[in-house]
Amino acid sequence: MRAENYQQQSHPPSNQFELNFGPNHPGIEGNYALQVEVEGDVIVKARADGGYLHRGFEKLMEQRLWIQNISLVPRICVPDPSPMEVCYSMAIEEISGIEVPERAQWIRVLQLELSRIAAHLFTFGGHAATTGMYTPMYWGVADRDLILDLFEEFTGGRIYSIYNLPGGVRRELPDGFLDKVSEVIDYIESRLPEYDNLFFRNAVFIKRAKGVGVLTQEKSLEMGVTGPNLRATGLAFDLRRDDPYLVYDKLDFEVVVEEAGDAWARTLVRRQELLQSIRIVRQVVAALPDIGGELRAPIPNPLAWRVPAGESYARVESSKGELAYFVVSNGGEKPWRVHVRGPSAMHAVQVLEELVTGGRVEDVAQTMFSLDACPPEVDR
Amino acid sequence: MNLSQFEAWLADIDHRIAGVEVTASNLNKRRNRVDLPADKLVLFLEAVKGEASFVHLSAISCVDWIDDGEFELVYHLWSYELNQLISAHIRVSRDPGEYQSIYDLYRPAGFFERDIHEMYGLYFHGAPDMEKFILTEWNGIPPMRKEFDSEEFVEQNFSWQEYNPEWLKELVAEGGGVVIPCEEQRFSRSVATDHGIDQQHSNWSGCDVSSKLCRIDSKYRGGD
After folding, report:
1. What count of CB pairs under 8 Å joins A to B?
2. Hey, of A165, A217, A317, A326, which one would you mutate to test binding to chain B, going by the most B CBs within 10 A of its CB?
3. So where are chain B's domains?
4. Pick from B195, B201, B202, B203: which is nearest to B217 by CA?
5. Domain annotation for chain A: domains and CATH numbers
6. A350 touches B: beta carbon within 8 Å
7. A70-129, pLDDT tens digit by residue?
8. How confident is the model at residue B207 (pLDDT cuts 50, 70, 90)?
9. Which of residues 81-110 of B touch A (CB under 8 A)?
10. pLDDT above 90 covers what percent of chain A?
11. Which class in CATH covers the domain with range B3-157?
């Protein structure tokens, strides 16, 4: 923030102070700030301050070809980029009536679930760090790296895969790749009990997270919270099951639910979703060898592609919640409008402001990280 | 309300609220489109939330139709009971660009309306917070409006620089550093064969990096 934009409170009570959390803060992935007013240790007012990661993606996308935007969209959420490109591709396929071949749909599911595991491991590591436990952070980041290695071999990119096209996926899986996936998945599953002992059953963490940042189901619905944060309040809703896309309706998995709605419950939901994602990946690995066919449907020359006029609202369940792309075409060779509805736009702004108000200063980081906010999704 | 009741409810809505038109409805794909006049939106939202359980406002999207002189606002609503999405479309004039807030019906609207005001300059009366959020340093016209040309902005505010550093000159002198046409790039199967790089691209062959890239590529492509 520049000095001229700083507005000093005119007559603050002598016991109130203003405190800036961020924009660089371990309590959140990426740069994001929270300005809080404290009375002693109690927060009386909080205000989210975003924009540090604004790169104008929605405007940029209006000035690029449909196909060029594939390389822009994953950058909107760094920890979990794959749902972005899948969702954008799904929106274009919907408008132009392209049917994605089955094999490509299964490969996309594999990509999405690996990305979800990586994102949850990252969040879990970061969350441990906010509680003052640094070993789980190293573990989480190191194990996530194994998935990034898979992505490197699979798609060519560790983080931003840029692997999807409207109509399908770019390349065939490398030889022996599914065996490697199984190996990594088995390894991560074998690590989970160790995580439990180190972190999820750790008395320090339970004491710090229980009862912090409580979100009731009523409040979540009222404030538009989605994803694991909503499921932690007892509502079993998952777009993969309730608004199914790709081949999720052929897969067997459970929608994980916790009742308490606090930071502890949200963490447990993510912990159990790791297991569900592992289940899904195993099913995909078992099914993929028998699913033949094309990798992508034929599309017009992508450099001169005029997507027919129309609009589409595509939604996927990312690791943070409901991710949606509203894409409007006027029949031109560039999108007329792309609106990205990042799940964090809800729980990183209004919900966060409300949850930390009335709480204590030391719980801010705990609340922020347990909501798994992804600031680049807010700023776009 | 179950799905067949909802279908009947949706079919009947234009009799109850004049001007509401169901322009597309696909219950199997769970997508429904509704077009209505701007002054009927709150009536419609009250009905759709109160009677048909659409409690979740997924997003408000703004589309700038500059040739028509209008903004299109799209309210995406989701029902957790019916698992259906309704996209309600309204159009408001670009000039003066104002509309009413629905914050008292849907709290997520607070964020979206603030965002639209910031990016498009469309003011929402009754919204609790219309302060800038992302573009606190920005004093120009709202950048998502179609008349804002970001390329022109760059031309006016930034200058181009010659970029020809020493290392690039050396590369060019060695025959590298040239743009390779897309049909000759390394992912093209006809060029990067398992046996190495074709003779016509001999300017790559002296470079370690290129042979490494080629190896990776042939590994990815499997046995062919």
Report:
1. 97
2. A326
3. 3-157, 166-220
4. B195
5. 3-44 (no CATH), 67-358 (1.10.645.10)
6. yes
7. 999 999 888 889 999 999 999 999 999 899 999 999 999 999 999 999 999 988 888 888
8. very low
9. 83, 85, 87, 106-108, 110
10. 40
11. alpha beta
Report how far residue A253's alpha carbon sits from residue A251's, in angstroms, rounded to the nearest whole number.
6
Residue written as tokens 């790791």?
A274
Residues A372 and A321: their CA atoms lie apart, in Å, by 10
Question: B134 CB contacts (<8 Å, ≥6 apart)?
Answer: A50, A51, A54, A379, B115, B118
- For residue B201, the model assigns a pLDDT of 42
Q: Does A182 touch chain B (CB under 8 A)?
A: no
Chain A: closest CA distance from residue B63 (Å): 6
pLDDT tens digits, B132-144: 888 888 888 899 9
What are the chain A neighbours of B61 within 8 Å (beta carbons)? 326, 337, 339, 341
The distance of Cα A75 from the centroid of its chain, to the nearest Å, equals: 12
Give CA–CA dist B173/B20, Å, rounded: 69
Mutation to test the A interface, candidates B104, B134, B145, most A Cβ within 10 Å: B134
Whole-complex ipTM:
0.87
Altogether, the residues listed in chain A come to a count of 380
Residues, chain B: 224
